[in-house]
Amino acid sequence: MAQLLIPVVKPTFAEALRFWLKLGCISFGGPAGQIAVMHTVLVEQKRWISDAKFLHALNYCMLLPGPEAQQLATYIGWLLHGTRGGLAAGILFVLPSVFILLALSLLYVTVGTLPALQGVFGGLKPAVVAVILLAVLKIGQKSLLGPLHYAVAAASFVGIFWLNVPFPLLVVGAAVVALLARRFFPAPVATAAAQVRAAQAEEGYYLTTQTVVPGTGFSGPRLLRQVVAAVVLWALPLGGLAVLGPDFFFWRTLSLFFTQAALVTFGGAYAVLPYVAQVSVEKLHWLSQGQMLDGLALGETTPGPLIMVLAFVGFMGGYTHFGGSLGLGALGLLATTYYTFLPCFVFILVGAPLIERTQHNVQLKAVLSVITAAVVGVVLNLAVYLGRAVLFPGGRLALNELHLPSLLWFLVSVVALYRFKLNLILWIGISAGAGLLYYWLGL
After folding, report:
1. 391-404 per-position pLDDT tens digit
2. CB environment 396-419: b (16+ within 10 A), e (fewer)
3. Tens-digit pLDDT profile for residues 277-336
4. Based on the number of CB atoms within 10 Å of its own CB, is 275 exposed (0-12), middle (13-18) or buried (19 or more)?
5. Which of 148, 150, 125 is nearest to 136 (CA)?
């Protein structure tokens, strides 16, 4: 007879707080690395949450707009300790990266024009393009499971690259395709034996798919209170900027732009970056295409979600718009961070009680799978968009315009990260050193 595992007791808030703070400081490696760390510690080591419950939370966080790793931390924090647990987990996940990116942004605009620092970014940019390309492969391997997924991914790439279809419309189109496919080609239901095995696999965990979390289900008064609180929290900083800040039109544009970006960030940062880059570079003129790529390189070198790149865009927006003001650039970074992540907390804290009642809803999972396939095409578009800027810095797609050193380091980066599985942060450091060496040698 199999030995029954003793369930783990509920962790204290202080114990959870220590873990979320540590996670915020070591969450390098993008969402895959961050989720892997949470899975290793929370599921395998501490046994605070079962694998099935963890994956359920992850699946629905991926369905929501916003950075899935940060929302997953918020979701699990809410499961463990309610609203205060969700707020603590989500805030501590991004807080270290806010201060690090602020320091790096200040250094970028003060000493970034030095040739040596430009040499560093010259090594970073091809490596970042390689990282994005490999992200396409990793997402594609997990999400492109059949002809429908491949067709949606291809249509998504064509739509955003050649036809300039807005990303939100691609998401809506993918959801419609998923619902139609679900209607005409329903998926098989799991057998009873498989369900029994799944239940046995959850023995010995504090949180499982059978755990009844207090406060779940629909509550009209609670939903109304939460919506009112979210609207007030969104409006208060903007009201303060209207009274105390210069040029309210800029701050209104910034808050609306990044709130909108947060609302369409399906599939993580790679999915929304083309939209942000297109608007901030070509329409708002807050930064150049090269600076956008530099910001992505900075985002890869800091802990926290990659969507923090948007904070760099906000910094450059304030810095550029107000004539090189470091203080208003810093305020732009903080405002961007606030308006980027506020919807993430709202989606989890408002939606989690409802999501808990839909753990076995296969229709939502079907929608998620097709939306993720569309994200593959969007990420491929980002790789092409930024890769063109790196490999053809002159802007013309001609063989004589090809920057051979960047091409060489791009290929080396692909081999190092894909074939030899080198640590991403280590390779980012090596790439920075290679760019600096290239500058010193005067090649």
Report:
1. 998 878 888 889 99
2. eeeeeeebeebeebbebbbebbee
3. 889 998 999 999 889 888 887 876 677 888 889 999 999 999 999 999 999 999 999 999
4. buried
5. 150
The per-residue pLDDT for range 173-213, each reduced to its tens digit, is 988 998 888 888 776 544 455 455 656 667 788 888 778 78
pLDDT tens digit string along 142-162? 678 889 999 999 999 999 889
> Closest Cα to residue 121, out of 330, 290, 320?
290
For every residue of 364-421, DSSP letters joined together read: HHHHHHHHHHHHHHHHHHHHHHHHHHHH-TTS---GGG--HHHHHHHHHHHIIIIIS-
Q: 49 — phi, psi (to 5°)?
A: -145, 140
Q: How many CA atoms lie within 13 A of 428 on its CB side?
A: 19
> Within 10 A of 107 (CB to CB), how many other CB atoms are there?
12
3-state secondary structure of 325: coil
- Residue whose C-alpha is closest to residue 89's, from 72, 112, 73, 101: 73
pLDDT in tens, 34-64: 777 788 789 888 899 988 788 778 767 877 7
Distances (CA, A) of 150 to 178, 287, 303, 421: 13, 34, 32, 26
φ and ψ at residue 207, rounded to 5 degrees = -105, 125
Torsion, Cα of 385, 386, 390, 394 (10° steps): 40
Nearest Cα residue to 379 out of 270, 297, 272, 269: 270
E-only strand ranges, 105-144: none
CB 47 within 8 A of CB 305: no
Q: Is 259 exposed, middle or buried (0-12, 13-18, 19+ CB in 10 A)?
A: middle
Name the residue among 236, 234, 252 with its Cα closest to residue 321: 252
Q: How far apart are CA 325 and CA 315, in angstroms?
A: 10
Whole-number average pLDDT of the chain: 84
**Prediction pTM value:** 0.72
